[in-house]
Amino acid sequence: MFGLTLLLLVWGATRLEATGTDEPVLLRADGLPTVTSTAALANAQRAVLRAFLRDHPNYRIEPFMMPGIQGQEMDTRPLMGIASGNPPHAIYVNFRQSSSYINHGFLEPLEVLLARVLAADERQRQADADGRWLADPDSAQIEAALQAILDRVVSPVWPVIHRAADVDKPGIPPGRHVWAMPTSILVGALLYRKDVFQQAGLDPRRPPRTWDELLDYSRRIKTLPGKFGITFAGGPLISWGAYSFLASNGVTYMDRRPDGRWRAAFASREAAEAIYFILRLARETFEVDGETYQGAAYIGLPGNDASLRWERGQIGMQFTTLRDEMLASLNPELVGIAPLPISPRGSRGGELNSTMMGVFHQTTPAQKIAVMRYIWFITSEAAQRIRTRVFVESGFGRFVRPDLLERFGYHDVLRQVPSGWQETFQTALESGVPEPYGRNTQFIYTKVSEPINWALQQPLLEFSEEEALQRIEAILADAAQRVDKYMLGEMSAEEWATRRGVGASVLLFIVVIFAGSLIWVWREFTAQESGGTSRSWWAYRKAYLLVLPALSVVMFWQYLPLLMGAPLALFDYELVIGSAFVGIDNFATVLYDERFWASLGRTFYWVLLTVGLGFWPPIFVAVLLDEVPTGGLKYFFRTVFYLPTVVSGVIMVFLWRQLYEPSESGFFNQLLLSLNDLGPVAGTIVKLGALGAWLSLIGLVLSLAMQLRELTWPVRGAIAVFGVALLGATLSPILSAWHGPGNLVIAARGLDPAAVTGWSGVGAFFAGLVGSFSIQPLSWIDDPDLAMLCIVLPTVWATAGPGCIIYLAALKTVPEELVEAATMDGAGILQRMAYITLPRIKFLILIQLVGAIVGAFKGGTDFILAMTGGGPNGATRVLGLDIFERTFMELHYGLGAAMAWVLGALVIVLTAYQLKRMSQAEFSTADTK
Prior knowledge:
Blueprint: H1 2-15, E1 16-17, E2 25-29, H2 40-55, E3 59-63, H3 73-83, E4 90-93, H4 95-103, H5 110-118, E5 127-128, H6 139-151, H7 158-161, E6 162-164, E7 176-178, E8 181-193, H8 194-199, H9 211-222, E9 228-233, H10 238-241, H11 243-248, E10 254-256, E11 262-264, H12 269-283, E12 285-288, E13 291-294, E14 297-300, H13 305-311, E15 315-323, E16 335-338, E17 351-359, H14 365-378, H15 381-393, H16 402-407, H17 411-414, H18 421-431, E18 433-434, H19 444-456, H20 465-488, H21 493-530, H22 541-565, E19 571-572, E20 580-581, H23 585-591, H24 594-614, H25 616-627, H26 631-646, H27 649-659, H28 667-674, H29 680-707, H30 713-739, H31 743-749, H32 753-756, H33 758-767, H34 787-811, H35 816-824, H36 829-840, H37 842-858, H38 861-867, H39 879-889, H40 893-919
Parallel strand pairs: 2-3, 9-14, 9-15, 17-18
Antiparallel strand pairs: 1-5, 4-17, 6-7, 8-15, 8-16, 8-17, 10-11, 12-13, 19-20
């Protein structure tokens, strides 16, 4: 008996995970400074980290490293890490992320963990090998820990971190809990360049105090060559960049109603007034000393362009955030800090946010205790003292909050603090409007940005102010209704029954499509094999051996994820907590989702542009390189078309984004605006010459469709469709002239509809072909009508050179004697292409055409994401990007999988046809002698 008892004790001891011992514990922490950063804040963070590790030598902390989407790193990096199985144990949280993280079970209640850390009983910090705690803190200990947390948190942040989850799911603790700890408070303020103010004749000691002064200052700075008055983020994040304007006018994006539900609150007159002011700031024309200017603000594309302009002194003002400890690390001789300007309603307000740290739920007990100790230390007074010391020793003491300098004895540094900075912080803190933190608000900025971007694209300034405000209010009401529907998603039982019936039918259809396509392809390949001589597989053992590595890679990276991910469409899949089986509900939701159908329609538009503009250039480039008579021209064309191959994709994206800059200083806009310098005669010649060249191209394409009789009908049909599409694009301006500029423009400008529509509009269009140019700067990728085309053009330029290689190889199979005989008979290059060259490679063209269509349906997501992020207003959000956003950014994995099934059903039919054609092919080496 004694031996058995001893054995059980030894076995139990080995099952304990002694989190309070010196066993090494590895932590991945978000928010750590990079190795290369030498900023004062980074040095202060390192000093605090070293002090923590001295107290806990068994802990090893490494930074959480995960790539993210530029401009949305704080949203995408943690989600990518969690989805890939490499989450941060100490996870960064902000206001709008908090609800999503809580409702998906990412966060651990902190008051319970802190009670364990502060407990005298070591068993409360120990767990067995199965992750079960050996002892739990009692209610008194938890209440004491809760009070200790409250003592360290400012009152505006407490409702954000101490609340209950909005959903009732297994794995999420019920009731109110503390989910994250603030590490610093962030408030909004205004930065201004004193040197730019002086150049514009403004007093650098007097920043703008009201919106009217801000508009006046911005316009005076705009009159300087190459300068902009103010900048803020644009595109899908413009509602974040312009948050200070809306908050100053009393606008909150989300509001919690008495029933506890969150609703959109931005459909108001106050929001319309703020958007109208943004419109005036960015689009309104003004005249100074006989010069006319359009807009005074630079609304930057996603990226670092606005930051570079600020550093170069090309921008006068921008919004910023101040930290509660170190207000800023700026040169006060060059840059000033001021409170946000007061709106016409007599109020000011900016973003009130906080950098917070939470404990990721899916970590070991030892890691949870370690992270809680880490969070509790970096928010302590000891850590505050260390950071203040580092700031002072680094020469940045004058930027530290004065009360901290006084508390820790740095009285000699107090008089160096720039006057007004502490008052600016206090004013911003008192007037701050908390960032939205309700249910599904993680991406609220993209939703609110839609009506703002719509207003920037319409001629609202040509209306009276009251009428413009009414139209903006109507758009805001529609956007708010969409947000409420997205957030709540409530439907009656009858609606669910109807949708589930449709979803079941579509799911059955998709299964039939997949099964039928696979059976069709299998029969085609087996039919081809049965027609020849049958040989044992052993005779091809060497071939199988050579194919095996590639087959294994394809099976592992393509088919295995497909098989594992396919069932997700039937689940409400969760990364951390348990997933629930929902059957066909995801299909029922997708099929009635307007956003899905809009993305699907844009996908077809993307495919049409990509194939129509991008499939034929590699063929013509190959023919051109094969036909050009001199080596010099060959090298020239090879350089032009192969250059994108050696250029990094990231560099290419930034290059084209710079070319597409929407201001008058953008490269493409400069080229267009230079046409305005032509006189009436030269302008008419250029217009008619360009029109003639364009019509000649259309005639050439249509004639090829008629003359290439030896090509297969799908290829000839594709050429004809391409020609008709070009013709349709040519006629679309005439059709637009027939319909007129639109009801909004007609109403804004007080035009006579009869004078600008119908034959009058068409006549005015043709009359515009005669005379000088009067071109205005284009918005390019900021224009919903041009954005998709602007994305396709770089891809055509980038793929023409690499894509022509296979056609160059195929052209070597064309017998040279045929080409020489045709040339001697007087055939030109077009005749040789129509009757000799293209018919000889028609099979390759057909296979490549089907492959290009399939690739266009599946591809483009990465390039679109880098160029526009799906904007403006979703104009470039194709289905692939929509699937990515729903799955990895909005965490709706089931919906994303259902959408992928629908996309797969579209693609598999084309893929089956391509495989059928390839099964009929005979491959052999070319005889070029």
